C-alpha cells in the first residue's frame, strides 16, 4: 500500500486560514469543489493521482540501498526510551516511526498496512525540500537570495510586490496579505483552497495583495512558499522535478517520489505534497544534519544549510522554511491570524533541535549535537506536542 491516509489533516489545516480570493471564474470554482469532494481520505497516493496530476521525482535507482543499522546500545540509546517512543507513536495513530543515530538506523516501525515502500504526502514538509533546492540553484548561479521576486516572475516585474526578495519569501516575511478565514462552510474562492485545488495555482498566488512592508511581519503562508517555488522554477530553465532529482534526490540515495501538479505540465505545489517514503524523509533529515554533505560529498553549500537553520529576523523559532526548537515556545503560533497552535510543553533537551513541520504532527526532527534524526508520519494528531518525542530519546541517551 502506498499513500497519505492523513490528507484530510492537510485540508483541515488549510481551512484554518483561508482568506477570500478574487477574480475566480465559475469554471475554476467548479474544479476546486470537485477536487475537494473527491479527496480520498482513506486511500493511497494512486487514488489522489486519479483526479490531480502528478510528476515523478526520479530517485537513485529501483534498488535503493537501505541505511546501515546499529544496535540501540551501540548507538547510545536505551531500549526503554525507544519503547516509550514507539508507545507514543502508537497513541497518536502513527503510520511510521524511524530513528537514526549518526546516519545509522536504530528503529524502524510501521503500522496500519504501511511499509518501507509506502509514500506519504506529508503536507508542509515539502517546504524545506524546496528551500534546499533553492540553495542548490543559488550555488549553481541560477539566482540569488537577494533577488526581488519580480526578476523571475514577469507578472510582477513592474509591480511593487515584485520587490519582495526570495529570502523574505523563505522566511515567511513577504508582507503579503493573509487575513483570517471567513466564517461558515469552506468557500471555493478562499486562497488556500484555490492553492490546493485550482487548475492554475500560480495565478492564485500572484493575486494576493500586499498588506505590510516586506520584511516587517512573520506570517506562515503557503503563498510565500508557492511564489518562492515559482521563482525557482523560472530560474532553472528546466522542470523542478528533474532538477530536484539530479541535485538532491539521487545524491542522497532516495527512491522515486512524486509532486502534485495543478494540471498536466503546470505548477507543482511547492508548499506541500511531496510524496516520499519515511526512509527518504529520514535521508532529507540526514542531509540537514550533515550540513549538505552526503557520503563525503558536499552536494549543498554548508553555509546555505546554516542559513536555513538560523533564526529569522521576525521569528526566532523559524529560519528559512525550517522550524527551530530554541528559544522555547510553549505554544507555537503560525501567525496572528491562524487559530491553530502547536504546544511544546517542555523545553527541548538540546539547544539545536530543527524540524520539518507537516500538518497534524508529520515531523522530521534533526538534532545535530546528538547525531539524531527522527521521523514521525501518521494520522493527524491535534494533540501533538513537539517536545515530547525528541525529549524521550534525548533523555534516553546512555551515559
Compute the number of structural domains.
1
Q: What does the main sheet amount to?
A: 6 strands, antiparallel
Order of strands, widest sheet: 3-2-14-13-12-9
Oligomeric nature of the chains? single chain
Spatial shape: globular
Keywords:
single chain, 399 residues, alpha+beta, Beta-lactamase, six-stranded antiparallel beta sheet, four-stranded antiparallel beta sheet, 14 helices, 14 strands, globular
Give a quick rundown of the structure.
The chain contains 14 helices and 14 strands.
Write the layout of secondary structure elements.
Blueprint: H1 7-15, H2 26-37, H3 45-49, E1 54-57, H4 72-75, H5 79-91, E2 94-101, E3 104-110, E4 120-121, H6 125-139, H7 166-170, H8 191-197, H9 201-206, H10 222-236, H11 240-249, E5 257-260, E6 274-276, H12 278-289, E7 293-294, E8 297-298, H13 302-309, E9 323-324, E10 331-333, E11 341-343, E12 354-358, E13 362-367, E14 372-378, H14 388-395
Helix pairs in contact: 2-8, 5-14, 6-10, 6-11
